[in-house]
Amino acid sequence: MNRPIIIGAGISGLVAALELEKAGYFPIILEATNKIGGRVKTDVINGTPLDHGFQVLLTAYPEAQHYLDYDQLDLINFLPGSVIFDKKEMRKIGDPLRDSSFLWSTLFSGIGSLRDKLLVLFLNRKLKKKSIKAIFNEAEISTATYLRDFGFSDGMIHQFFQPFFAGIFLEKELSTSSRMFEFVFKMFSTGNAAIPRRGMEAIPLQLVSQLKRTDIRTNSAVRELDGNTIKLENGETLSSNNIIVAVSPELIGLKSDRSNAHKWKSCVNLYFEIKESVLQKPIIGLVPDKSLLVNNVHYVSDVFGKAEKAMLSVTVVTDELIADEVLEREVRAELLLHCNIQAGKLVKSYVIKKALPNVNGVQYEPTPEDVAIRTGVHCCGDYLANGSLNAAMASGRVAARMVK
Ligand SMILES: Cc1cc2nc3c(=O)[nH]c(=O)nc-3n(C[C@H](O)[C@H](O)[C@H](O)COP(=O)(O)OP(=O)(O)OC[C@H]3O[C@@H](n4cnc5c(N)ncnc54)[C@H](O)[C@@H]3O)c2cc1C
Q1: 32 in ligand 1 pocket by Cβ < 6 Å?
Q2: CATH number of the domain encompassing residue 386
Q3: Which of these, 20, 260, 287, 384, has the minimum number of CB atoms within 10 Å of its CB?
Q4: Does pTM top 0.90 for this prediction?
């Protein structure tokens, strides 16, 4: 049988391979780098997993529940709330229905009014009941407009929603579609935000471990796709009647209306050694001032348990090119001034230019038409639906099921 070829071993390509195996195929995956996982990568430094960019698995993701074994991933959950760093003071706000320790701190946090807190409960209840299908059928407005229309006060938006969702959407204006806001809010309120004990890369590694008949060829960058012939950078060519392009199509010389070429959201993730954690728990700390570089922090050492030295992860949401030494200096100054955190040695920093695709017309998963490039050539990737692990998985499934 002609073996289907998948270009790209990110989450979408790996799920496509799983689905093709289920349908009886023996796929080949061509991956440009020496690693599988695409944007989900982890380095282990002194025994501590450092992800390339702070990301979490939302355990309520329907696709993740289908493709992943959570027990085996040994997930560590973040607390269902956040610490807001406000002029060196720390205010805790969270879901008291899921963690009672948040009850008093949330009520008396000074973040938002009593009305805001009631509105959060109301939104929570509304989105728990609303189906995912209904969410993605809604008209789209920006998240910022949605929150204002819902009745939240400016204070609540600026002190909580803006920093929290800027860190998720990787853009500070909350211009991201309200569909994505409702979906992510629903996922947060019905499950946990978690990281596998060995870091996020355990997710693609678990997908690979399920592949029994797939030939994964790393260091095999594709230069272009010509008809049904794949030309590799090393001069090799391969042909197949079924090709799945699990990379942005323009990278291999293809045109696609949905690829949003050049429209990516970026961030920088810095890891610092720290004397001791001021949070002591796996919780996300937010800095509610969008004029600052620092958006969110968490103590990696509080997530993964005892490490030789405490370590802090800092996320900067920016599209600007900032020189490394300037960025480091400014981030250190902001941590001290706004969070009272004295950053020690910089252990690692990751500049991620293409972190999340800027998707117009957010949907749960791409349609069969969206994934069709031409006869025998289909595409998948988060950029076809929304920037999330869930969408990457769903797109891989949709593309694989088009293979005949
Ligand atoms: C900093 C950051 C934070 C995030 N936070 C979250 C989060 O909290 N929750 C969440 O659900 N999602 C999050 N995401 C999004 C999630 O990681 C992505 O949606 C998902 O990993 C995308 O998978 P993909 O297969 O679509 O694409 P990719 O991961 O980009 O995979 C594409 C693959 O193709 C390979 N490739 C490229 N060019 C070629 C070529 N010419 N030939 C062969 N191979 C090639 C690449 O090396 C890569 O392996 C985050 C992403 C980043 C970067």
Answers
A1: yes
A2: 3.50.50.60
A3: 260
A4: yes
